Amino acid sequence: MEIRLILEIKECRAQDVKLLEQWTPSGRSQTHARRFARQQQGVSTFLIAWLQGLPTASGELKWTGCDAPEVREAFPDCPELNGLQVSPASARSQGIGRTLIGHAEQLARQRGCGQLGLGVDDVNFRAAALYLRLGYTETGCHYTD
Ligand SMILES: CC(C)(COP(=O)(O)OP(=O)(O)OC[C@H]1O[C@@H](n2cnc3c(N)ncnc32)[C@H](O)[C@@H]1OP(=O)(O)O)[C@@H](O)C(=O)NCCC(=O)NCCS
Fold it and tell me: Cβ(46)–Cβ(60) under 8 Å?
């Protein structure tokens, strides 16, 4: 028997913040709440991927671009997909991250953006390999996050 799992990607709602915090605790940094607050301000879209009713992946599409001014200067009008994370680790390598990136790209296209940026840690080789496979190119732009 084949079991099909449905992945739904939606904008974060106020009631999701508590569940996200329980599922992937951000502790004192209150990252989920801060990402949601930025969405409320209209500067980003906080995407959540739901798998069987659980918030399995998230990422913030920052319409104002990268926080680092040198990156914004080099790539003006380029939104950034920030804080991409699939959790728990057992849910990784099943296409969820790729699907969330595809959704973010679609939103960026709908806004008329011709580019989407993704920052990756110098030692995060697997994530970098995924982005390169999806067609992203290295810019050589290094910054501290
Ligand atoms: C990177 C990440 C978002 C990719 O999402 P995903 O659902 O695992 O990715 P997909 O299944 O769509 O694509 C799989 C590819 O992602 C990469 N990947 C898989 N597991 C990974 C892991 N534990 N850490 C980093 N990258 C991983 C590999 O390139 C993988 O290819 P493979 O399955 O052929 O080995 C996810 O693995 C993750 O949350 N990693 C930890 C947090 C992180 O590194 N976030 C990225 C910040 S820039």
Answer: yes
Q: What atom of ligand 1 comes closest to residue 131's alpha carbon?
A: 29
Report residue 90 as tokens.
Answer: 């057992």
Pocket (CB within 6 angstroms of ligand 1): 84-86, 89, 92-98, 120, 124, 126-127, 129-130
CA distance 40 to 37: 5
Range of the domain at 89: 7-133
Q: What is the pTM of this model?
A: 0.92
How many domains are there within the chain? 1
Residues 16-70: tens digit of each pLDDT: 999 999 999 999 999 999 999 999 999 999 999 999 999 999 999 999 999 999 9
Q: Which atom of ligand 1 is nearest to the CA of 92?
A: 8
